[in-house]
Amino acid sequence: MSLPGSSDTSPGVTQRADEERQDDAVPGRVRRSTGAVAGIAAVAAALGAAELVAGVIERAPSLVIAVGDVVVDSVPGWLERAAIATLGRADKPVLIGGVLLISVLVGAALGVLARRRFLPAAGGFVAFAALGVAAALTDPRATLPGALLVAVAGAAVGVGVLWSLIRTARADRAAGTAATPPAGPTGVAGATVAGPGRPPESDRRRFLVVAGGTTALAVLAGVGGYLLSGRERLGQLRAAIRLPAPFRQAGPVPAGADLEIPGLTPLFTPNERFYRIDTALRVPIVEPDGWQLEVRGMVDEPFTLSYAELMELPQIEADVTLACVSNEVGGDLVGNARWQGVPLRTLLDRAGLQEGATQLVGRSVDGFTAGFPVLTALDLEEAMVAVAMNGEPLPAEHGFPARLVVPGLYGYVSATKWLAAIELTGWDVDGYWIPRGWAKEGPIKTQARIDVPRPGSTVTAGRQPIAGVAWAPTRGIEGVEVRIDDGPWQPAELAEPLDVDCWRQWFLPWDAAPGRHVISARATDGRGEVQTDERTPVAPDGASGYPVIEVEVGR
To answer: Composition bias, kind Low complexity: at what positions (predicted)?
Structure first.
């Protein structure tokens, strides 16, 4: 209920309503809402066509992904860190969704403009296509001809669909204006018949069906382009690869290394559950036949290897736990796998290091870079160019055909996926994340995590296990302690060790009493250093502190 003299609508809503009535008063003029729908459908058609062409043509880029990549590379470091901390693994879908949402809003605006001035609206499609080309050319994999073909296809389809829908809407409006409602017995127009200046409902429905059908076809085209992008073929190529036997195999898993407690993280993380944090909005599809690895920079003998040549070199196996620097205390951005590949030392010995070559920089096919001390690559026998993970060729999501695996370092300085080049440089060269506020060196901190019971869960009173994993790659885990509420630290029982580079399971039998309880844990590494209780954020060099959970014990 409104007071006398008041209005239930805002000035903006009133203005739009007035504009709609003005449009209704002009024969053949398209309403704003209709123009917006036409623009959205046109943008959808443009994006769908562009994605389809990108999927069909080799090395043709996705313009949506290209724009998203530019956004990722351009945002301030603090914002990028906040996005990873807040969204975790959902950061990439959210960013792509944001690019699509902005495209839809721009399309709606261009559709409204096209009602009266079509050429400027068409120019808007061309401008956005040009923006996509500029963004695509920042990717070293993209080619100018491929980017232009994708952009031209998308812009042409978008402009054509917009023209068709606006023309259809004008014809419907003209037909509706010409229609004269029949008079009733008293000479008053029948209540069920649309009045002058408004198209019949059947014509309105026809326009919406055409616009909706166009959008649906655009979605199918986009999905088709994704399916044609080589992912299925890559799966077939991976399945045909036969891994060579390593000259040095990882040791057998000792009895008691996997406690097999329900809810406890397994000793080896399945490939499909291994965490993924990287800057690629879409997983690069790299076929092994066309792939090459360059070893260059401050070396005496630079060289290039094909995939077949890399696979012919002597390989090793190693059980290594990898962790993301963005992993919060108690988080799940950590995983353990059995890796197979060529030792970095083998490649560096062949190249010959020059004086001043203090840093090894891995370069990805998409331009990502990460650097770490050369001495680390020389000192650690397990540092490798990995080609396999848990007994199968690398999954595409984890770097196929080759990636770097370096024990003891967070991934942001070492774990280059979709590896294209190994470059030896001085320490003054910075990898991708360093200018964005992360530390130059990234040793993994000693950490423990509580897996059982789950935080916030309710357990039954009586004997219950408290269990988890702890890791300190290159140092190993020598002990884990658990504290219940404000009680003393109690030593947990450790699973048999597998390797100093991978995590170790632990558990503590607990006589759980009814009520709410706080459980903490801390690890001691192989050097005798105890996990610190000082809480720090993930930036700039990894989070620290004890994992702490609360559980409810029922009667």
So the answer is: 176-196
Between 114 and 555, where is the model more confident?
114
CA nearest neighbour of 490 among 514, 466, 470, 512: 466
Strand partners, 470: 448, 504
Burial degree of 530 (CB within 10 A; 0-12, 13-18, 19+): middle
Closest C-alpha among 104, 86, 89 to residue 36 = 104
Question: For residue 375, with 0-12 CB atoms within 10 Å meaning exposed, 13-18 middle and 19 or more buried, which class applies?
Answer: exposed
Q: Count CA atoms within 13 Å of residue 309 on its CB side.
A: 10
- In the structure encoding, which two tokens stand for residue 285, read together? 């599809």
CB count within 10 Å of CB 487 equals: 11
> What is the identity of the amino acid at 496?
E
* Residue 503 and residue 321 in contact, taking contact as beta carbons nearer than 8 Å: yes
User: At residue 205, does pLDDT exceed 90?
Assistant: no
> Any idea which residue has 């017995």 for tokens?
185
Contact yes or no for 102/30 (Cβ under 8 A): no
| Dihedral pair phi/psi, residue 227, rounded to 5° | -70, -30
Helices 91-114 and 32-56: crossing angle in degrees, nearest 10, is 130
Q: What is the mean pLDDT of residues 235-244?
A: 92
The encoded tokens of residue 212 equal: 């909706």
Whether residue 283 contacts residue 365, with contact meaning beta carbons closer than 8 Å, is answered with no
Q: Residue 426: in which H helix or E strand, if any?
A: none
Chain CA centroid to CA 522, Å = 31
pTM of the model: 0.82
List of domains in the chain: 19-177+198-229 (no CATH), 271-436 (3.90.420.10), 447-554 (2.60.40.650)
pLDDT digits 0-9 by tens, 388-406: 999 999 999 999 999 999 9
- 314-325 in b/e burial notation, b at 16+ Cβ within 10 A? ebbbbbbbbbbb
d(CA 110, CA 118): 9
**Residue in the block written with tokens 């959970």:** 549
383/373 Cα distance (integer angstroms): 12
Please work out, in degrees rounded to the nearest 5, the angle formed at the alpha carbon of residue 470 by the alpha carbons of 466 and 476.
140
Instruction: Assign residue 271 a region (left: φ > 0; alpha: ψ between -120 and 50; beta: otherwise).
Output: alpha
**Pairs from 484-491 (Cβ < 8 Å, separation ≥ 24):** 484/510, 484/517, 484/518, 484/519, 485/517, 485/518, 489/522
Give the largest CA-CA distance in the chain.
Answer: 103
Instruction: Pull the structure tokens for residue 402.
Output: 């080759």
Phi, psi of 377 (to 5 degrees): -65, -35
Give backbone dihedrals phi and psi of 44, rounded to 5 degrees, phi first: -60, -45
Cα–Cα distance measured from residue 71 to residue 94, given in angstroms and rounded to the nearest whole number: 12
Strand partners, 389: 339, 392
Provide CB contacts within 8 A for 81, sequence distance 6+.
Answer: 326, 436, 437, 538, 539
Please give the pLDDT value at position 433. Answer: 94
Identify the H or E element spanning 374.
helix 374-379
- The total of other beta-carbon atoms located within 10 Å of residue 146's CB is 19
Q: What is the pLDDT of residues 74-113, one digit of tens each?
A: 888 777 777 777 776 677 888 888 888 999 999 999 999 9
Which of the pair, 271 or 185, is modelled with greater confidence?
A: 271
